[in-house]
Amino acid sequence: NDGKLISNEAGKGNVYLVHDPWRPVPSTGGHLSPNPGPADRRLIDMRSDVATFTSNILTERITLKGIPTLEVFAESDQEGFDLCTSLSIINEGNKSINQISTGVLRVLGKGARENINRVVKFQPIFADLNKGESLRLSISGSAWPAIAINSGHAEIVCEAPNPKCKITTIKLCLFDSKLCIKSLVSELGFQELRLSD
């Protein structure tokens, strides 16, 4: 079942993802995939190893512009895991789930077993969502082959699935989680920067 994207309330609950390196969640669309550009995530989001969080249906048109950033407390049972994320627009009537931005965070080492705040930055977006549509966040432990498989070992190179890869359970703690769109304008207040020799 879908989780929810809610505003003006604290998040709640825990979500567990199981990353199986021999059945990785595939990548689609975006800037790194073998089939770049716009993509329908419907079949990927139906997988049991993908967590989805969907907003209420919009009652008016909105524009999203900036750098989407996800903050969520996460840990795993191995010394390495990935958070592969995507934002999509679910059109009116749920006919398609159109991916508009992706992001990835790789965690390696003993810190992967600690429940600490993780920050995932997405590719910048400028997108309109129309009345009747919804926004969806999807989270998985892989996006193969766009992103090399995290083996679950701190000392083993991330690459294609191989016998040394471990099945990894990832715990997402939603209480203090948030998804925000950060401005493309510098926090220092620069409206524009020019190049000079």
Would you count the extended β strands for me? Answer: 11
Largest sheet: 6 strands, mixed
Helix content: under 10%
Supply Rg: 17 Å
Identify the strand order in the major beta sheet.
Answer: 1-4-10-6-7-3
Report on this model:
With 197 residues, the protein is mostly beta strands. The chain is built from 1 helix and 11 strands. It has one helix at 42-45, and strands at residues 3-4, 14-19, 39-40, 50-54, 62-76, 80-90, 97-108, 116-121, 125-129, 134-140, 168-182. The protein has a 6-stranded mixed beta sheet. Strands 2, 5, 8, 9 and 11 form a 5-stranded antiparallel beta sheet that branches. The termini are far apart. The model has no long low-confidence stretch (mean pLDDT 89).
Task: Please sum up the structure shown.
It is built from one helix and eleven strands, in the order βββαββββββββ.
List the helices and strands and how they pair.
Blueprint: E1 3-4, E2 14-19, E3 39-40, H1 42-45, E4 50-54, E5 62-76, E6 80-90, E7 97-108, E8 116-121, E9 125-129, E10 134-140, E11 168-182
Parallel strand pairs: 1-4
Antiparallel strand pairs: 2-11, 3-7, 4-10, 5-8, 5-9, 5-11, 6-7, 6-10
